[in-house]
């Protein structure tokens, strides 16, 4: 039986639904923190497949020193005001805005097709995040992949496993004083879709 069909027989009877928004906070240091809520979104097997099939994914290429290389993941960006591909994602955006007291306006989608896809160490600091405390909320679907965090000045790496339906929110000074990454893995992993909700001018 194909994997996608099998998954939908197990889980497809339940529509996607968000549970209570009661994350656990870990303080990375005095000014940066991470909130984690495993399984915030349930019943999302069909949603994962719908997003994989229907989001207008783009493959990007970027200048890297003197060559142009493929960005190792597929991307799609829903700007402020754009209709999201499923109502439960609009609900997630609205509930995150109410909970964190800052309006999440945009949604970035990343599709990690397999363990060869990744995002290198970076902060979301091409905007307000370079000088202002803000939030970046990540909803993870599909195969589990760890999100790594490390202080910019150097120091130990912390690993947050992100599974199907899990929420992770980076807050405070996290985008300018810490870096995050999704490393490649040689393990055989399936696809993962990450949805990043960001406030105005956080990129
Ligand atoms: O895949 C993720 O959850 C993180 C993606 C990310 O850090 C970014 O697109 O800025
Ligand atoms: Fe990021």
From TrEMBL:
MF GO annotations: dioxygenase activity
One Gene Ontology biological process: DNA alkylation repair
KW Mitochondrion (keyword) present: no
Origin superkingdom: Bacteria
Residue ranges of every copy of the Fe2OG dioxygenase domain listed in the record: 103-201
Keyword Oxidoreductase: yes
SUPFAM superfamilies: Clavaminate synthase-like
InterPro entries: AlkB-like, AlkB-like_sf, ALKBH3, Oxoglu/Fe-dep_dioxygenase_dom
Pfam families assigned: 2OG-FeII_Oxy_2 (PF13532)
Keywords: Dioxygenase, Oxidoreductase
PANTHER family noted in UniProt: ALPHA-KETOGLUTARATE-DEPENDENT DIOXYGENASE ALKB HOMOLOG 3
Name recorded for this polypeptide: Alpha-ketoglutarate-dependent dioxygenase AlkB
Provenance organism: Actinokineospora bangkokensis
Higher taxonomy: Bacteria, Bacillati, Actinomycetota, Actinomycetes, Pseudonocardiales
């Amino acid at each position: 039986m194909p994997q996608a069909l099998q998954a939908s027989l197990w889980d497809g009877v339940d529509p996607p639904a968000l549970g209570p928004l009661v994350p656990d906070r870990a303080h990375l240091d005095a000014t940066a923190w991470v909130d984690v809520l495993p399984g915030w979104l349930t019943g999302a097997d069909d949603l994962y497949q719908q997003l994989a099939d229907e989001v207008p994914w783009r493959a990007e290429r970027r200048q890297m020193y003197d060559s142009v290389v493929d960005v190792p993941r597929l991307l799609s960006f829903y700007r402020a005001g754009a209709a999201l591909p499923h109502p439960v994602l609009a609900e997630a955006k609205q509930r995150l805005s109410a909970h964190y007291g800052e309006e999440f306006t945009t949604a970035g989608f990343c599709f990690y097709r397999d363990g060869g896809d990744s995002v290198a160490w970076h902060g979301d600091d091409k905007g307000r995040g370079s000088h202002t405390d803000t939030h970046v909320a990540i909803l993870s679907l599909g195969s589990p992949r760890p999100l790594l965090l490390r202080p910019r000045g150097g120091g130990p790496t912390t690993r947050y496993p992100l599974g199907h339906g899990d929420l992770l929110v980076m807050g405070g000074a996290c985008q300018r004083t810490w870096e995050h990454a999704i490393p490649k893995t040689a393990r055989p992993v399936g696809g993962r879709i990450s949805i990043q909700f960001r406030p105005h001018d956080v990129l």
